Fold these 2 entries.
Entry 1:
Amino acid sequence: MTARAFKIEQLIQLLAKMPGLGPRSARRAVLQIIKKRESYMLPLAALIREVADQIKTCRVCGNLDVTSPCHICQDPKRDTATVCVVENVSDLWALERAASYKGLYHVLGGTLSAIQGTRPEDLNIKTLIERASGGDVGEIIMATNATVDGQTTAHYIIERLKGVSVKITAIAHGVPVGGELDYLDDGTLSAALKDRKPY
Amino acid sequence: MTPKQPGEKPGVAVRRLDLTRFRNYPSTRLEISAPGENCIVLVGENGAGKTNLLEALSYLGPGRGLRGARLDDITTNGAAGAWAVSAVFAGQGEQRRIGCAIEYANKSGGVQGRARRVIVMDETPLSGAAALAPYISIIWLTPRMDRLFQEGASERRRFFDQIVVGLFPDHARQLYAYEKTTRERLKVLTGHGNQRDETWISALERRMAEHAVAIAAARLEGLELLKTHLSFASESRFPIPVLALKGEVEDLLKVHPALAAEEQLAGLLAGERTRDGERGQTGRGAHKTDLQAWHPEKDIPASQCSTGEQKAMLTGIVLAAARLQMSVRGRSPILLLDEVAAHLDQERRTSLFEEVATLGVQTWLTGTDAAIFSPLKGKALFLHVTDGVIENINQLD
């Protein structure tokens, strides 16, 4: 293998490690980047470099941005009394895409898992307790995933927040918008019935 | 719950099965094309691969497979890499393709990483075997279960949970979540080098209690349904044992509402932290429940009955569970009956074959002697298995 071919192979191998990309998709992506050197490859390389130099983890909420505090924490139009707790930045982005939440966030950076060695001190839980105890926060919305680890982490945080004068809520679990009951699994239906609300 | 009419829709059945590097099947395809072939008889000598075929099928439903084997022990001897099983299921007005394979954690295809079961349905990966429960139910009976009433509670509990999952698919998810939180709690309790986090343990215990109570509720409801169904059903000629569940969580649920039972159990678990941590095992919970059985006429524990009577009672439960599932969910399971004729007398064998032929449930039977299955002649697909090679022998002399 020539030195140049080796570099391309290295690029493919690096891209193939990305979530959702396998070796085949990575190869296709690399070919596409190479074909569009001016319009795609060079701007992409420059942007990756720029982001790599500037990226910061928000010291308030754990979001990723080029500033710390992040643009959400600095936004004066946001409701600073409400904090939504999410597992990862990807969850924060998902909620932002929905554009229906105007409060602040707190990114935990994962979930508790004794088996995988993720302990409370490995997550942004201490900072959350400090934030909640500060007096400015009136409501904490638990938006961890409806997985075993996600729900255990939510329970843990709720326990830790006992004694802190803050309202704790959780996002609803149940029937998706546009969903048909006939196609839902029993667990989702049970959760939807359990979380029913006055009409 | 409104009972649905049995036979409202044709039962779910395997129409095609592909095995790759699965035990003694390097690469095998089995087509079951005739729509009426709801009864498949596999005959062959010991070690030919009959049970292996049933085991492969068992991986296409919830649970850990018929043998509960280590995933990386299944690959064909001498073959490198992973094994795979895939099948096309048809019936209930729908068709699904379900595949199961192992993947190694290092993702390079090498066998150094930890083996993980991967399940795909209609080209969409599922989160785990429990996610198959709403679509496929597989109930099996193997020679290893002949001593089910004599052995420890865990095998009986697993057997009954398999039936409950068939009735309430969410039971599979609850079992998985309960097991996971139990393992997590134990890991935190027995962790070395770190200070024990009581709040973390408390959160895990609350989750455990929630799942345990949901599990116990489903088991109790499943048992009541089974009993009610049996008291009205006279189709079976197999003795149906008197069944009862003995478990602390079930007992709590009998005297408390679910939320109060959860509180109680979480409190009990909290009181056991030191002991559980020292012993490295969880002393109480839904995993301690036992299914108790008595002979219906002799009023003696099933464990004291003869081997043949025990086998007959087990067969009776399995057939009743299949009928009940069709009645409650309108969805038929798939039955895997390995060497089922062993220990059954001639009369019961004939009854079994009659029931299997009319049940409307795809049933896979195995045996060494084709002649035993002669009452099924003309009603079943006969396949001869020789060292991983399957041959259609529908002409039984």
Entry 2:
Amino acid sequence: MDSVRSEAPRRAPQTTRPELVALKVLVAGGFGVGKTTFVGSLSEIPPLSTEEHMTVASVGVDDADAVPDKRTTTVAMDFGRITVDDSMILYLFGTPGQDRFWFMWDELARGAVGAIVLVDLRRVDDSFAAIDYFENRGLPFVLALNDFPNTPVFSNASVRDALVLTGDCPVLHLDAREAKSSRSALVALVEHALARA
Amino acid sequence: MSSHEARDPEATWRVVPVYALTRGRTRSAGEEMPIEAMVTANELADRHNPALQVEYREVLALVSGPVSVIEIGAALRVPAGVARVLVSDLANAGYLVMHLPPAAEENGRPNAELLERLLDGLRSL
């Protein structure tokens, strides 16, 4: 009996303290679009990675594994932290990009302030899945165009057209390597969420 | 969070599979705890510490100040779901103070007051 339960005290001590608040923002977008860079530019701790082990059906997966039906896979999820004030912490979660891990997003999205969808204009198709997801769930999001070198220049109106944006989500440019730039995107998201609160 | 850096990455890979740490449980008992929920050890943690299973002691060692479930997972090199089970056990046994998320709006999202505070904080960073 080395379980924690066997050591349970008889009298319950204080076990909740509601005044400390943790909020979260999701950072989404296709592979290589700059999610980890974005989290790293804002986080006060080096971005940490948590690995989620899960069994997934191998349908459609290029798989040399001898086990035919299922396999265990590992999804790495980056996250960072910002101390907002003396009793508020904001967590940034870089969402796992692959389509087959959408179910993980439901838990992440629950209670979130909103999402930053990073877009590489050279590969806009990669951001459709994230945009669809947040539109369907009514979660506030901003579209942040990560300005890579040699990124073609389009007006925000044509970007909206290209991405078939139906809602009122703000579209902005950023350099995910720059803290100031990344912070502006975060501020734009919170303003947008507040306008919809 | 110095304990993050203190761990030797080569030396901490587990031999015991993670599901064994939680005796097969992947869901915590009681209320659903978000992975960003923060916990802090209380005074009971010190008194009962030596009798606990090593994974519980590892969690308690991390949370002398408020630390989130997901950070505990990263420090222990276990999935967030496993960290949640360990944290939940300790909380149910009375060793942890849980800083639960504020009551949310109907849509589950933070209310305007919290968003204003967040905005003020971000602008003054």
